[in-house]
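Q: Focus on the chain.
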Amino acid sequence: MIDQSKKQKFAEQKERVRRRINTKVDQENYEFIPAKKQVDYYDNDVEQRVAVYARVSTGNVQQTTSYELQKKYYEDFVVHHPNWMLVSIYADEGISGTSLAHRDEFNKMIADCRAGKIDMIITKSVSRFARNVVDCISMVRTLSELPHPVGVFFESECIFSLKDDSQMALSFQATMAQEESHIRSRSMETSLRMRLDGGLPLTPKLLGYSQDADGNLVINPDEESTVKLVFYMYLYGYSTAEIADALTELGKKTYLGNVNWTSNSVVQVLRNERHCGDVFEKPIHRIT
């Protein structure tokens, strides 16, 4: 048999619920503030100022093709979202992703984010953004904590950094990217060492030199003066940017045949181990 007191208490509870639901609201003293809509990458109805970041890690011709294709792809990608406005495509060519120190375009993009010019960054993958776990996670977190939060969408992994459940997936992917970079580096070092031990030095294309039929380096008279000019100007105190401007104005070509020099391309010449004499291959005549 049902306890009458419990039955009555249950009925009173239901009655209170009905009264609350049917209570008339005093509109003059009532204001409803809806929750702010959380911006999601998939929201095409939200107006967003979009930046694209592209990077290739080497300066060879094949990577230049990848670099240009990335830029063209994302230009079309943004156009197909009518409420998106493309702020800029920030692209570093021939730069490693293991450090943020020399990625000028990346750092410029972050500065624009801090200035409130960007709502969202789109990049191909975590490894394009950074291969250092600490850099990747800390930068994404910094962007999300700005007065005007900036989200990063990693297309390949389909991760949007402003979503609450993105942090674990992003940490995992960044760790994988860093380990992949370390494995490749160790593999290349091992391969190079084995070649050197076997008397087969790796001799890539080098500004100022050509290769003879046996693969030995010989001075290229058309490029020799360019290498000398780079080192002489640097020794006389010119910055790499000033050297690049001078070479461009003189119409000097890089080892890829480009006539537009950058500060980075000058640094590559100055740091090359063969130009500096840190690697000595016989028979070879070093430009002095």
Remarks:
- The domain at 48-176 is CATH 3.40.50.1390 (Rossmann fold).
- The chain has a mean pLDDT of 76.
